[in-house]
Write a sequence for this structure.
């Protein structure tokens, strides 16, 4: 340790001491006040004491400076780093706050659903505690009444004596907030909501409280003050809180559900207060890091912060210069040229939860062998990275040598690496990325593979190009020893993509084949999937969406006989969740709608042959929609599968606005059919544009015909209120477009939506057959819907002119497309009912006709649409 050492074991003392056989000890010289003294380190090897005490440093005094005390030499080591904030907001507190809120909502939901179960559970507890000794219950009540407040106060006093008053103040704030919220909830529930959901929570009526006002502030205080590492305080505090909860149950003024809600509410308030106000910064300073390096036997002379302090998600990194005056103080191994001797990476405990939601999502979505653990304790992270660094070095791969590791207090740990001067691969100029450099990268990777070591983060930042032109592998924090075949193949796919992003697919595959052999590359082909790559790599692939396909093509061209079995990395796909959520939403909406129908009345009054005609017209809409799409796609597509896609779209529109769901699924279908993204979007955009033009023309034509031949629909003309609303919206849109940012956003979205539409239309115009197919499908789609609506009206004895039915349908369809609700829900029904009533139908006939029409066109296709959607997913058609 590089500190002043005034004495030690007799065998370790320098000559001239009072040790056995030594000369008489010289008296300690006291420096004069006006004279300056300095300290000079003199090492004595462990040979003096048989190697038991390790390396020591003595201090001799010379003129020119003052001797620093033996309590630590770090006071004289300058550390260049920005001032750390007094308080920080930890992502872990935000995550715990969110989890507590979700759990509280789940408790409320379960109680509202299982009211009888909650009441039965409370009854069982009351009957069970009735036979308990009253003396024991009285003692427990007495102990909890005094202790539940006394123990936290005692802990707060102890923290104040240790000068941790800020933490105590934050905890008191959390307790005050919890008390105010619980009192407010109790008063509001008692007076405003007896017999409701919260009354079920309290299981007994208004004489009980839904949350425990005495316990919630204490839980919030304990949560915010932080008792981590103080097991005795934790045990006593939570025991007394448990006793207080037990007495609440036995005295029948709290229930199990209420106590669970109280606990979760207190936790949520405590964590929310911590995150809102911030916790006192527990991270050790650079001086503490330097002091830890000295305890490792290193002699830092100066240090500086290297990372960007503004990047809250990055680990801290320090550059350290060691003392060059004394060879014994240098880092082990050969000294490399450069500004720094060491690079020290600091792992802060509060940073271990950074990005946890994303890692948990990846862990749930992907197979266990694809991802590492979502959350590791600080000690586990330190051990894993240290083990990987030693294993990589033992495997012969070139990597900065790990000099030492240590914990820095209780809130951080450090790893000290030898500094390798150089740049990350992403910082190297294009002309410097030579085949020689790439071949060296692949040779280092081959040594990892031979040692069964998985890196898991082979991005550009993990590859260091030294000033000597050689490649080094860094960033071992996510590595794995004794890795399985899948993990090694994932590393290969990741590095292929990383190199291809930097040097192109052809050079990436060629240099990899020269170092690994051609037979090693086909194993990566089935794993060249976006989901298998790191987050930053997936972001980079947005600029070149065809890169993975081109890498596969290069490998297949190199090994034409490549046959690799497909690998399923995902436990489930996002579209699976989409299907489940969509079906749940559909069921939630459909069941009340269908339950409100009077089926007996409908069945007794309906005309069956008109019902069958309406059903046939509804089925014909899917065929017309398929031909509408086929007409604007120059490529050949199977008619049957295209019709099935339109059936699947009927399911999608229940969870997406009517104008969005069909566009999205049709675009996806064309892409899966081998059409590139640009032409696929252009084809769907062309069909939508032509459909819009035809819709407007038909509305104008039939509106004119209706107005000139029949006066029943004259009131369908826009009212003054509608005109005012339309003009106001137009004025607001025009004002918004004067803002440059809004204008650029709108222009980019429109350009992305309709880019390539005109060239696509030109391609269609060159083929009269395609043009007839597209226009026929567009008009046929409108005709089929109009026939379905007219047949639904006639099924209940109503009758309207055909022109009036067309205008009603076109108007309601426009409203449904404009309103951002799933399938135009609510807007279409209201518009149709109002328009039919204005056109001359009775309210009962109009309502029945609209319900039948929506049943046939929206609700009835839900189950077939879901089945078609699932089938097309299995076939990778969408």
């Amino acid at each position: 340790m590089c500190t002043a050492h005034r004495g030690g074991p007799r065998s370790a003392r320098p000559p001239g001491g009072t040790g056995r056989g030594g000369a008489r000890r010289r008296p300690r010289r006291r420096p004069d006040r006006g004279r300056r003294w300095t300290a000079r380190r003199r090492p004595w090897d462990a040979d003096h004491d048989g190697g038991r005490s390790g390396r020591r440093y003595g201090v001799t005094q010379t003129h020119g400076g003052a001797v620093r005390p033996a309590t630590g030499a770090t006071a004289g080591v300058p550390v260049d780093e920005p001032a750390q904030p007094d308080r920080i907001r930890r992502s872990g507190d935000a995550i715990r706050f969110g989890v507590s809120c979700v759990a509280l909502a789940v408790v409320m939901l379960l109680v509202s659903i299982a009211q009888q179960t909650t009441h039965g559970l409370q009854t069982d507890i009351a009957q069970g505690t009735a036979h308990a000794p009253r003396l024991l219950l009285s003692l427990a009540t007495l102990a909890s009444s005094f202790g539940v407040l006394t123990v936290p106060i005692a802990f707060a006093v102890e923290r104040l004596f240790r000068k941790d008053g800020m933490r105590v103040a934050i905890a008191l704030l959390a307790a005050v907030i919890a008390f105010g919220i619980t009192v407010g909830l109790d008063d509001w529930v008692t007076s405003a909501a007896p017999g409701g959901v919260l009354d079920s929570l309290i299981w007994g009526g208004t004489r009980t409280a839904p949350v425990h006002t005495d316990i919630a502030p204490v839980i919030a205080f304990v949560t915010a003050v932080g008792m981590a590492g103080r097991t005795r305080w934790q045990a006593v505090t939570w025991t007394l809180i448990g006793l207080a909860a037990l007495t609440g149950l036995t005295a029948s003024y709290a229930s199990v559900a209420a106590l669970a809600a109280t606990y979760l509410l207190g936790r949520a308030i405590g964590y929310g207060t911590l995150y809102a106000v911030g916790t006192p910064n527990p991270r050790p300073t650079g001086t503490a890091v330097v002091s830890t390096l000295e305890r490792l036997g290193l002699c830092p002379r100066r240090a500086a912060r290297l990372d960007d302090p503004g990047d809250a998600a990055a680990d801290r990194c320090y550059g350290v210069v060691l003392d060059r005056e004394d060879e014994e103080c240098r880092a082990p191994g050969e000294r490399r040229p450069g500004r720094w001797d060491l690079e020290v990476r600091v792992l802060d405990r509060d940073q271990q939860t950074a990005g946890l939601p994303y890692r948990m999502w990846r862990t749930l979505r992907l197979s266990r062998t694809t991802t590492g653990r979502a959350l590791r304790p600080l000690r586990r992270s330190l051990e894993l990275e240290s083990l990987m660094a030693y294993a990589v070095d033992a495997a012969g791969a070139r990597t900065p040598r790990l000099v030492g590791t240590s914990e820095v207090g209780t809130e951080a740990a450090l790893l000290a690496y030898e500094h390798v001067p150089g740049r990350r691969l992403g910082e190297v100029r294009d002309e410097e990325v030579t085949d020689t450099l790439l071949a060296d990268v692949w040779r280092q990777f081959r040594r990892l593979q031979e040692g069964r070591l998985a890196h898991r983060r082979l991005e550009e930042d993990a590859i260091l190009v030294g000033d000597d032109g050689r490649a080094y592998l860094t960033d071992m924090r996510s590595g794995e020893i004794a890795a399985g075949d899948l993990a090694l193949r994932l590393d290969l796919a990741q590095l292929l993509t990383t190199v291809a992003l930097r040097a192109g697919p052809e050079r990436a595959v060629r240099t990899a084949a020269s170092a690994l052999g051609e037979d090693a590359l086909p194993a990566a082909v089935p794993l060249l999937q976006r989901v298998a790559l790191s987050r930053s790599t997936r972001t980079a692939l947005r600029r070149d969406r065809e890169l993975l396909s081109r890498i596969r093509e290069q490998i297949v061209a190199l090994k034409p006989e490549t046959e690799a079995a497909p690998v399923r990395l995902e436990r489930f796909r996002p579209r699976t969740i989409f299907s489940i959520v969509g079906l749940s939403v559909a069921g939630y909406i459909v069941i009340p709608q269908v339950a409100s129908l009077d089926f007996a009345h409908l069945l007794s009054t309906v005309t069956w042959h008109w019902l069958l005609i309406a059903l046939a017209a509804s089925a014909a809409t899917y065929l017309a929609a398929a031909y509408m799409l086929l007409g604007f796609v120059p490529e050949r597509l199977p008619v049957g599968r295209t019709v099935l896609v339109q059936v699947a779209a009927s399911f999608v529109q229940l969870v997406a606005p009517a104008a969005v769901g069909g566009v999205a699924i049709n675009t996806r279908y064309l892409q899966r059919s081998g059409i590139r993204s640009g032409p696929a979007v252009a084809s769907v955009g062309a069909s939508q544009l032509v459909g819009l033009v035809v819709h407007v023309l038909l509305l104008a034509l039939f509106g004119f015909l209706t107005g000139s031949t029949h006066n029943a629909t004259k009131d369908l003309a826009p009212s003054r209120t509608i005109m005012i609303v339309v003009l106001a919206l137009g004025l607001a849109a025009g004002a918004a477009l004067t803002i440059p940012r809004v204008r650029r956003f709108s222009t980019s979205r429109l350009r992305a939506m309709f880019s390539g539409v005109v060239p696509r239309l030109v391609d269609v115009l060159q083929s009269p057959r395609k043009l007839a197919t597209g226009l026929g499908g567009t008009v046929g789609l409108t005709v089929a819907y109009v026939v379905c609506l007219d047949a639904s009206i006639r099924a209940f004895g109503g009758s309207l002119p055909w022109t009036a039915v067309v205008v009603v349908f076109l108007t309601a369809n426009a409203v449904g497309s404009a309103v951002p609700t799933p399938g135009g829900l609510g807007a279409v029904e209201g518009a149709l009912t109002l328009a039919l009533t204005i056109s001359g139908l009775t309210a009962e006939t109009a309502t029945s006709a609209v319900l039948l029409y929506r049943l046939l066109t929206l609700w009835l296709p839900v189950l077939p649409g879901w089945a078609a959607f699932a089938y097309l997913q299995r076939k990778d058609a969408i």
Notes: The CA atoms of residues 510 and 810 lie 60 Å apart. The chain has a mean pLDDT of 76.
